[in-house]
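Before a colleague's protein record goes any further, I have to sign it off. Thanks in advance; the entry in question is below:
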Amino acid sequence: MIATAPATQDDYPTRLPEERWLPRKDPVFWGEWSPEAPLTRTETESFEKRGYIILKDVFSETEIAALQAESARMRSGEAGLSPENIITEPDSDEVRTVFRLDEQNALFDRLARDARIAGRVRYLLGDEVYLHQSRLNYKPGFNGKEFYWHSDFETWHAEDGMPRMRAISASVLLTDNDALNGPLMLMPGSHQTFVACAGATPENNHASSLKKQEIGVPSPESLSRMAEKFGIDYAAGKAGTVILFDCNTLHGSNGNITPFPRSNAFFVYNAWSNRVGAPYAAKTPRPAFLSSRDPQGPIAIARQSLA
């Protein structure tokens, strides 16, 4: 794939000789609240202020049981997934991530289009949405490795060509996530500052970064300053909880040395008006399983129960 020059001015330059902090130039909440909105005013304001929101009991026990069964089937090898869509742990053959979740499984495709997720994201972004990326994150017990601190937008902008901060990630908890088994950690308020990272993008950077990200991550000094300024929260919840977080919120997760695995379905929704172009800080775009480059149209949101 040959990349052309980005069509718009780069308001978020990154992969520079030296790290820099830049102010956010985009809204966080792009819509307008009304009593008919799918989130309350308090929930909307909390998302805008903190850069994320935790929604409890979104999916029923029956729905989660069906999703867990499909998740186990995919990880077991029964589903015949393409090897390019599977990432294993850095030090073992344990499945770490399954990509193209919506394309490989009908139930997870239905989950991605559910109004309880996609409808709320569409409201926050003030636009129709499509899936930029989807994946199943699995952190096995005893040896599940960490996901290091990062802003998703930094990578999506630098390597995928996403122009603006107009995307939201949704993490659907398929197992209980608690303080001990490597839950998502976030720095509330960090979404208002773009950390332009130091260092040029190597060719095929995604091949190593999917196991351990080293390029496009803030320095320890920046992370320390951010943590001192904003603090660190962790997003615990029972299976069926949904976490929505802004594309520029700094987040990561610890390793899991408990016996209890942690499994989440993960969907990245991008505004239809914010479709990706040429990368801003890489020679070529990442592969299509990481960045949907030719969506056929906005997703069709569904409202019935999953099971």
Helices lie at 41-50, 61-76, 101-104, 106-112, 115-125, 152-160, 205-209, 220-230. The CA atoms of residues 57 and 241 lie 5 Å apart.
